[in-house]
Amino acid sequence: MRVVQPIRYGPRFVVPRQQALRRNFGTTVRLQSYADTLPNLRIGAHTRVMFQGFTGKQATANAKDSIAWGTNIVGGVRPGRTGEHLGLPVLPTVQSAMKELKPDATAIYVAAHQAPGAIEEAIEAEVPLIVAVAEHIPLHDMLRIHSILKTQSKSRLVGPNSPGIISAVGKCRIGFQPLPCFSPGKIGIIAKSGTLSYETVASTTRAGLGQSLCIGVGGDIVPGTDLREALTVLENDSDTEAIALIGEIGGLGELGAAEWIRDYHSRTQTPKPIVGLIAGIHELRGRIMGHAGAFTIAGEPDAKEKIEALVSAGVTMVTHPGQFGEAFKARLGGSTHGVNSPAGRGKLGNQRRQIHTAVCRPQMRTRFLAKPCTQQRRHLTLSEDDCMDLLREAGLNCGHYSGLGNRRFLAIGVDRSTRSPCILAAPTVDDDQIEKMVKRYPFDYRHGPDELAIERVASHLHISLKESAHESLRRLVHRLSDIFYEKEAYLMETEIVERLGEIKVVGARFGFDDAAYRSCGRQTELQKLRNTAVEDASELEAERSGIIYIKLEGNGTIGTLVNGAGLAMNTVDALGGHATNFLDTGGKATSETVKHGFEVILKDPRVRVIFVNIFGGLTLGDMIANGIIMAFKELSPRMPVVVRIRGTNEKEGQKLIEESGLPLYAFDDFEAAKAKAIELSSA
What we know:
The chain is α/β, with parallel strands linked by helices.
């Protein structure tokens, strides 16, 4: 077997999937699978933590705070360097660090283009727990890493696009969670969203309950640890008496969690109470709502379906993270009834009705990919003509639909449950039927689609028994998968017909992972096909400022400005049909991004009120307040601004707003701020 040198954190580097196949990870045979690494998530005072990228600015600041809090940091790695940093050893490779420092976990603090190499080096060194916090790691790098993780049984990954994992009881932080919010206690937290988890932490701290173990699974398309796996860990955690489950649109993970909870309740005499929240009820179909994984494709449930599944499994649902504290107090101290008892069901029935009042009119389910005029960070969608050109270059038969032959749906995408690519197929293209009829056929990232899967696809699509038709389908699937790999796509949808024993493509819409270009400088030729002339000017302006802005449909009159994608989705949900937009300044909002956010919002003539909802974790409340005041003075908006600031330096921020002498309304309670914004928008 060819020996491959450990990957360093060099710029713009990617390992081909063929090379990933040859890498020999996890030589230990005592354990059987990646699932056997779940116990590695049980961190605490005993956990020895090292850093990769230890001497960098972010890692240094994080390490100082974590050490002061009580985390047992034992040193770190900087490629090619040996010495000391913060009085702790610095070693040149992860292998050497494993031998000398004997860490239980590594925190990876390197840029997105360097992170895949760092993760792979940690897997090769068999570090028990790997925490990757970086955003914008290219999807295909993560698919390759998951193909490696499945071949070993020593290393467990948390992230990427995650705040990390933290034990408030054991004073062990591996990530960038805001420490002032945390207090040792009894509530375990599992979350896709960082800001929503911080709000939940603050709520449970205010309620006097505190936290035990908090697992930030993150908002990536294919996270290293999912909701169901995290639930398994908290079930067996002796410090955890109740569990907060925070999900969002995208994937099937919440349905898997609901299935697990149903089984948990059936086999456990006194199950731990579980309270949940799902963000993205008011998603704009065809758009990525901030997080890389916050989108819905054919066959995936929307937020309402996820809520229904969790409620039916016995989960108490809340509509805002600030409600978690009181919900847990009620579940832990208010009743001796089990969740499966008649009395328990009655309480959940009230919660079901509460959620239903928050869900707006149902939307017709449509195919996922957005039109090319609605680009945003994390994806690039090409026009149908450009997609057809790519297919013709691959030697495929394609053209406009003549009206002859039944159209079928065929796509290459990602199966988030198996963390692998998949074929998606349905014998119809009708939007009313495709959701029920689409099936997934996962395949190994290292090998591509196999013949058995393609035969099953042919059967599901009702392709005729002609050998020429089957051969034509095989050729199409393999060519699509080639483009999927070579161009780093995340979803390639086609409409096909069978005519005269051949498969013809009569419609195509392809989406590509923008992170491959933005983080790693790959796919430059593909980026040249982007036509910004047809895109929304406000969304382009926001993108240039590092802001994710999505203009919503409808007659809303409240412009929203929020830090963090999960909190931004939840804010839009809470406002119902009143919101004009989704706007995420990012988890580290600054005065300048707040000002740019105001500029973008004010270009929408529908806006009558601006609602600023900030939870200060890493973001300081007083800094945000100064940014709001600066923006108001420079831009002179002719409308009221409602500001809700909680978290770090919240009192200082609220005081600055109150004493500004400007028509700004300051709140710390979300419900009061929301009510005021709605009231002012109707005046």
